[in-house]
Structures are given as C-alpha cells and as structure tokens.
Design a protein that fits this description.
Monomer. Can also form homodimers and oligomers. Keywords: ATP-binding, Hydrolase, Magnesium, Metal-binding, Multifunctional enzyme, Nickel, Nucleotide-binding, Nucleotidyltransferase, RNA repair, RNA-binding, Transferase, tRNA processing. By secondary structure, this protein is of the alpha+beta class. The protein has 19 helices and eleven strands. α13 packs antiparallel against α14 and α15 packs across α17. It is elongated, with a radius of gyration of 26 Å.
Length: 417
C-alpha cells in the first residue's frame, strides 16, 4: 500500500501558491484494508475514504469507462493492481496529473511540470472528451490562472465535444456550480473567453454569447463591442472583490442588447426591460439561487436609472427605492449600486484602474436611501389612522421631502425624469 498526494495540491505547490486541501490516491490497497486501518468510507461512485486523524480524502487508484452521455455515465474499476500511472491518465489536465510521494518524489508521466512552466492547459488523454464537466473546469481554471493558455489540440477536442452534444447533457446544477466558482476567481472574463472559443458558451449561455459583435455608442463605450464590455464589467467586479450576486448581475446586466434589431444599432433603447425576461430565462434554466437571480433581474431593469441618478428628481429616486424594495432590503440595493458601478467603470478607455474611475452615483443614492429610511412611517400611519388609504401617499411624500433636503435638490433645479 502506497499513498501519494495528487492534483491541485501538487500543482499549486509547484506554482508557489498556498495549498489549502490535499487529495490522496492509494495504490495497492483494497477497501477492506483501508477500513482495517481506521479510514472511514464516504465515496458513492467509487471508494473514497477519510483519514481517521486529518479527515483528508484518500481515493483508491481507479480506472473508468464511459457508458452513457454526460458526466454521470461512467463505470469505475478499483483494485489493488491498478497502477499510479493508470490512475493519473484518467485525470483532466497534465498539470493536475502529477503525484507526490511521502519522500517528495514526483511522478509526472504526462508532462505536467513542463506545461506548468509553459503556462498551458493540456488534456492528458482523449478520455478528457468523455466528461463535459471538464470543459467547465478548464474554463474555471483559466479564470484562476489567467496567464495560462489552452493548448490548440485541447481547444480542438473541446470543440468536438460541443459539436457532439456532450455539453448539452450537463445538468443545470453542475453548470451553475462551475460557473459560480469561476465567477469568484481573480479574472472571470477568462472563463467566458475559453467557453466562447470552443463554442460551449453558445450552448450554456446563448443569451450572453450573442452579445459579441453587437456595437454600442462609442461615446459611452470606447470598447464598442457589447461582449467585450461584459468581460470588462465582470473583471471590474472581481478587482473590487464583490460578492457572487454582484458578479453574476454584472455578467447578466446587458442581455437585452442582444435582441436589439440590427437596424437600430448602436442604440439600445429599452434594452433594460428586454433584458429582464432574458435574465429570468437564464436563471430558470440554470436554477440560479434566489439571491443571485433577484439581484440580476433588478440590475438588468434598473442599471440605466442608477447610472442617471445625478439627473433624477427626488420623486423619481424615491420611486426607484420603493421599486427595489430598498426599505426592507437595503443591503441588496447597495449590491445593485455595486453592480452598476462595475458597469460604469468596466469600459476600455477609462483612465486609471477600475478603483480609480469616478462613480458619484453610489454616494448620491446611498445618501438618498439613508434619508428616506429615516422617515418614521409608523408615526405617519398613526396620524392618518382614520384615513388608511392615504398612508402610502403620505409616507412617499415624506420620503421625497427627506431626499430633496438631503441631496439639496431645489424644485426649480430639478431635471426631468
């Protein structure tokens, strides 16, 4: 019985990165022998065990055979005679197919160290094509290791997988799991670029894929191409270390521009409302969590209004706050501001870093929300207890007055809605 550290722990150590988790492969052992040594079995599809002290995972060396489309159609074979090289060859990328023995010796039969030096993602064998999740994983790795490129032969293999319908067999939960993890990496735009290069984005997120080649007014968007703009917005959200709902909303905010008739380009009047239906469509298909869905829908609908905040009248601002349920969910409204901030800052041609580009709308609307929330709605309700139908109107008027005072908006100077 011999144990090796494999996968990400070895890869990250070679890259000089912090190692968080260790996965182990066990060669020359049976399940009964593992249990006899105190390991606790946890694997469903194949034998995986938790170490009795460290609780780290130890998997028996195995081979696998494809039996059906998708990522669940596999039969696994484990036995004491499966070699380390046979186990490693089933792994996705060469950089993840390196094993380290207890004495520090590396086993690298497929050139993983070379590809780490070259900064290349390369599949280990044609078995890569048997599991469509590997396309998503590679794209997620690209978001984490943004200086790596995809080997041409690997990209070609992924294109073949897409053409053969393998990506279409992915279940929504797994797609969302990988996408959400990729969105939280340092440069999530790379994930979308990799998926788009092999054709997988058109299958997974066709509403997003169509944005490439759709022009926008150069005055507001020096990058012109809407798809490129989305990449910039997403990387801005990452640079500002925003939470997952904000990053997802940033990615989804301009879907409506993908359905603007080409004879109207580069204008996109009404794209906000058009985008709402598309965002809802994506979220339903991928079973996106409620928190991410609600913010993405709100951002698609309201990012134009937030962007124009400095020109809005107090009454319009209060209507925006009410529409966004900001009085009950102020934290979500702040997330809307953050997503719109990324939309504003994420444009090629904006001078300085993402963090340096001005976005005064944030402080403006936060001050408005604070002022409006300061209105004592209960006190107003008590004053009109005999006229309950008037309470909403009076509360609204009080909030408008509070916002007007806080933002120093004079009636004669108000801009039209």
């Amino acid at each position: 019985m011999r144990t090796y550290v494999v996968g990400g722990a070895v890869r990250d150590a070679l890259l000089g990165l912090p190692v968080k988790d260790h996965d182990h492969v066990v060669v020359g052992a049976t399940p009964d022998e593992m249990i006899a040594k105190g390991f606790r079995p946890v694997g469903k599809d194949f034998p995986v065990f938790l170490h009795p002290k460290t609780q780290e995972e130890y998997a028996l060396a195995r081979t696998e055979r494809k039996t059906a489309p998708g990522y669940k159609g596999f039969v696994f074979h484990t036995s004491a005679d499966v070699t380390l090289e046979e186990d490693l060859v089933r792994r996705d990328l060469t950089i993840n197919a390196i094993a380290r023995a207890d004495d520090g010796t590396l086993t690298d039969p497929y050139g993983g160290q070379r590809d780490i030096e070259l900064r290349v993602f390369r599949h280990v064998s044609d078995a890569f094509a048997e599991d469509p999740v590997r396309i998503l994983r590679l794209a997620r790795f690209a978001a984490r290791f943004s200086d790596f490129t995809v080997a041409p032969e690997t990209n070609e293999l992924m294109k073949q997988m897409v053409a053969q319908g393998e990506v279409d067999a992915l279940v929504p939960e797994r797609v969302w799991q990988e996408l959400s993890r990729g969105l939280m990496e340092a440069k999530p735009s790379r994930m979308l670029e990799v998926l788009r290069d092999c054709g997988a984005l058109a299958r997974i997120l066709p509403e997003l894929d169509v944005l490439w080649g759709v022009p926008q007014p150069e005055k507001w968007h020096p990058e012109i191409d809407t798809g490129i703009h989305v990449l910039q917005v997403l990387d801005c959200a990452a640079a500002l270390e925003r939470e997952l709902p904000v990053r997802f909303a940033s990615m989804m905010h301009d879907l409506g521009k993908g359905v603007t008739p080409s004879d109207k380009w580069p204008s996109h009047h009404g794209h906000e409302e058009l985008g709402v239906k598309l965002v809802e469509q994506v979220c339903k298909r991928l079973r996106v969590p409620t928190e991410c869905r609600d913010l993405a829908v709100m951002t698609a609908r309201e990012h134009g209004n937030v962007g124009r905040a400095l020109q809005l009248r107090a009454n319009t601002i209060v209507k925006l706050l009410e529409r966004c349920d900001a009085f009950r969910k102020p934290a979500r409204f702040v997330q809307l501001l953050q997503a719109t901030e990324c939309d504003s800052r994420g444009r090629i041609g904006v001078s300085g870093s993402y963090a340096d580009a001005p976005f005064p709308q944030m402080a403006h609307l936060e001050a408005a929300m604070a002022a409006a929330r300061g209105v004592n709605a209960g006190e107003i309700a008590q004053a009109f207890v005999d006229q309950p139908q008037r309470i909403p109107e009076r509360v609204h008027m009080a909030r408008v007055s509070a916002v007007k005072q806080a933002l120093k908006l004079a009636d004669e100077d108000e801009s039209p809605e």
